[in-house]
Design a protein that fits this description.
This protein has about 300 residues and is of the alpha/beta class. It is built from ten helices and ten strands.
Length: about 300
């Protein structure tokens, strides 16, 4: 790990899956209740068996009273606010758009801190001129890495968060594209409030990682565990054609090893949510939630 003074998470010793220190899984996901009542929203999470949630869409920095109501309502139901999404291209080729996006993400990080969310999350961005998250040869360049470091430092130095962390996700075609690249980024950013939002599916970008995804999951947790603040849940299926094509699907319909994922998550011994995402309907979220709980139950794990 980095010896830089600004990077610190409490390191904890690894234990076997049979250890008594396994943490309850804090599963979460989107809800489909149409309401602006924080109490009703928090209770809907609990009705679905969720102990973590996305920040309600109506939350805004301009309404501190509402933010306090959201914070109290979710805490009363023991539902952690896992993340505030900030899905903008921090490396847009258009300088004006890039600056606009940087300001937006900075405001979202401030919102995450104000509502006591565990993190604000984005991807590093892309130099692709037409798709904000798309591939571009420069996305694996030193220029991309250095610009990402600068963006992360700018956001954190502007907000100075005390209750949240700023995070970016791995992507298959830009940096960081795996745990080693993520560690390099953590060391370079060198800020206490920079952390890891782990989406293991985003890092499975070649057959070796797909075939041996349990090993890849364990590698991610072994190397990044002290920095992981939140995780995403979905699955991957290999659509067979004349080139490699992995498709995101409902958990249980693909080949992701959820025994490995839940087992590693339970050993972190702190509240790290596992958030369902990118599914299409409430029924798909129900299916994914029930599958994950079934796998956890068979392993003897508990859910918060």
């Amino acid at each position: 790990m980095s010896t830089a003074a600004g990077v610190c998470f409490a390191l904890s010793p690894r234990r076997s899956l049979e250890a008594d220190s396994k943490s309850p899984i804090r599963l979460g996901g989107p809800i489909f209740l149409k309401s602006d009542d924080p109490v009703a929203l928090a209770r809907e999470h609990r009705r679905l068996g969720y102990s973590s949630g996305y920040c309600p869409e109506m939350a805004t920095l301009a309404d501190s009273k509402l933010l306090n109501e959201i914070t109290r309502a979710f805490a009363a139901e023991n539902v952690l606010i896992a993340e505030v999404g900030a899905w903008k291209n921090l490396l847009d080729p258009d300088p004006a758009k890039r600056r606009e996006n940087l300001d937006y993400v900075t405001q979202r990080c401030a919102l995450a801190d104000a509502v006591s969310a565990l993190c604000c999350v984005d991807i590093a961005g892309s130099y692709n001129p037409s798709t904000w998250y798309g591939p571009d040869p420069k996305n694996l360049s030193r220029e991309f890495f250095d610009a990402t470091v600068e963006n992360c430092r700018y956001i954190l130095d502007a907000v100075k968060p005390t209750r949240t962390r700023f995070t970016i996700e791995m992507m298959g075609w830009n940096l960081p594209d795996g745990p080693d690249a993520y560690l390099e980024l953590i060391r370079a950013v060198d800020r206490k409030a920079f952390a890891v939002h782990l989406d293991v599916c985003n890092g499975i970008n070649r057959p070796q990682r797909f075939y041996h995804n349990a090993d890849f999951i364990r590698e991610c947790f072994r190397k990044l565990g002290p920095f992981i603040i939140s995780c995403h849940a979905k699955d991957l299926r290999w659509d067979i054609e004349m080139n490699v094509h992995f498709e995101e699907v409902v958990p249980g319909r693909g080949q992701l090893d959820y025994r490995a994922y839940l087992g590693e998550l339970s050993q972190l011994r702190r509240n790290v949510p596992l958030m369902l995402e990118h599914l299409k309907t409430a029924e798909e979220y129900d299916e994914g939630r029930l599958y994950i709980r079934e796998v956890g139950d068979r392993m003897g794990l508990t859910f918060a």
